[in-house]
Request: fold
Amino acid sequence: MELSNLTLLNGDIFDANALGAVALSSLGNAPFQSALLHDFDKIIMVIHPDPNERQRYGNHLIHGESRTQTMHVELSQLERSLLTGDNNERVVCLLEGDILWDPQGIISRLREEIKLFGEPLRDRMIFIEFARFLHMYVKSKRYLQACCFMDSYNCILMSLYHWAKMEVCEAGQYPTPAVWEQVKSLNNSVYKLYEELAISGETVEQRIELVQLACEFSLMSKMVDCCKWLLSLLGEKREPWTFEELIALPELLYVEAELPLILRKLSARSLIREIPSWSDTGGGSIRYSV
Reply:
C-alpha cells in the first residue's frame, strides 16, 4: 500500500519522518495472534526515529466495518523488544505483519537479522536470558527460605521461562512469543521441568525444591558459555572496569538490575578477577577484569 493511500485510509497517523510501518491482520497466518488484535481487524505499527518528538502512542480508527488499532514506537524501543522480548506485541507485528512502508529498508533489515540469528545477536540474547534466569532463581531461593511458597513458585516459574528462551537461542532459533511450544518441539529437559512444576503430585514446596536443584546445576554448567559475550566485553579494555563504568555502557542497559549478581557469580567461579582499589580511609572500590 502506498503511503498516501495509507494516510488517506487511516487519517493522519503518519508523519513525514516515519521510518516505516507494518500491518498485522486478524486474518493472517501467524501462529500466535497478538492480543492487540482482540476485537480489532488490524494493527498498524508505525516506527519513528529516536526520539519521537510527537509522542503519539496510538489511535483507534474505523473504516466501514473494519476497526484498526495503530501504535507508534521508536526504533530503539523496537530493537529493545527484539533483543529482550519485553513486548511480544511489537515483535509479532514486526515479524508477521505486512510491510506497508519501508523507504530505508529498516524493517527488512531487522527481519533479516532475526531470520539469520547470527552469533552477535544470539550471544547477546543468551547472556540477557541467563542473567534473568539467575536473578529469578536467586529470588525464588530467598522466598522459599522465608516460607513464601507461592512467591517462590512464581519466581522459579519465571526462571524456567528464561531458561527455556536460552535453550531456544542455543538451538539457533529466535524465541517466539509461544516459547514453550518451541521448547516442547526441541524435546528439551526444561519442558519436562515445567511440567513437573505445574502438574506433579508433590507438594508445592517439594516441586520448587526439585526445580531449584535443576536450575542450580544448569547455572553452574552454562555460566561460561552463556556469559562469553560479557567476558568478551570485559576484555575490550586493558584496565579493570569499575562497576560505574560497566553500568553506564549502553550494551548493558538491559541487565542493569542483574549485573551485580552476575559479576559476583563470575568472580566466585574465578572467571573474572576482583581488583580492590584501597583508599587512605581503609575502604575502597572494586574493579573487574578478565
The two ends are 52 Å apart (CA to CA). The chain has twelve helices and eight strands. Residues 1-5, 8-12 have pLDDT under 50 and may be disordered. The beta strands are 20-25, 42-48, 58-63, 66-74, 98-101, 241-242, 273-278, 284-289.
